Amino acid sequence: MDKSLDEVIATRPKGVRRGAGRRAGAAAKAQVLGTTGAHPATRTATTGATKAAGTTSAQPADKIIVSNLPADVNDAQIKELFHSTVGPLREVTLHYDSAGRSKGVAAVHFQRKGDGTRAYQQYNNRLIDGS
Fold this sequence. Notes:
Elements: H1 5-11, H2 20-33, H3 40-54, E1 63-66, H4 75-85, E2 89-96, E3 102-110, H5 115-123
Antiparallel strand pairs: 1-3, 2-3
């Protein structure tokens, strides 16, 4: 290193930036994903509309996640509700924290495909028990 910093900076080619390879990698990734050619805002708007329209009714579901449950709700109550109103169940799993208290989240697995979708349509954003 027999050059001063000013000499190193002066001899460095202008316009050449580090990290150009990284941008090239992003372009290659975009080509693989098939997202080249469209403006990002336009691309997001068109794919977002397609996903939103077909998300819930594309495939029949056999599992739902129930959240915002009161702490005093137990497995038996969840089983009774969904078995009597939707259909036969395979499994109900209520999630607990390390102290043994309910987290207010349960996974409900139905025996038949489509029962999960039906339960979602019937109970999504609805208050089940007013107490």
